[in-house]
Amino acid sequence: MCGIFGYCGKKKAAPFLVEGLRRLEYRGYDSFGIAVSNQGITVRKREGKISLGGADLARVKGTMGIGHTRWATHGVPNDQNAHPHLDCQGTIAVVHNGIIENYAALKRELQDRGHEFRSETDTEVIPHLIEEAFRGDLAAAVGEVIPRLEGSYALLVIAAGCTEMVAVRQKSPLVLGVGDRAFLAASDVTPILEHTERVIFLEDGDIATLSTRGIEIQHGGTGVERPVQRIDWSLAEVKKGGFPHYMQKEIYEQPEVFSLTTRALRGEETPAVLQGIRGVTLVACGTSFNAALLCRYLIEEYCGIPARVELASEFKYYTPPGDYLVVGVSQSGETADTLAAIEKARMHNHPTLAVTNVLGSTITRLADHTLYMRAGPEISVAATKSFIAELAVFFHLVDHLSEGALESSLSTGHLAIGEALLQDLSPAVDLCRDARSMFFVGRGPFYPLALEGALKMKEISYIHAEGYAAGEIKHGPFALLCPDTPVVALCPPGQAFPVMFSNIREMKARGTPMIVIGAEGNQDLQEVSDVFIPLPGGGLVSHVLASTALLQLLAYHTAVALGRDVDQPRNLAKSVTVE
Ligand code: M6R
Question: Which domains occur in the chain, in start order?
Answer without folding.
Answer: 3-231 (3.60.20.10), 239-411 (3.40.50.10490), 422-579 (3.40.50.10490)
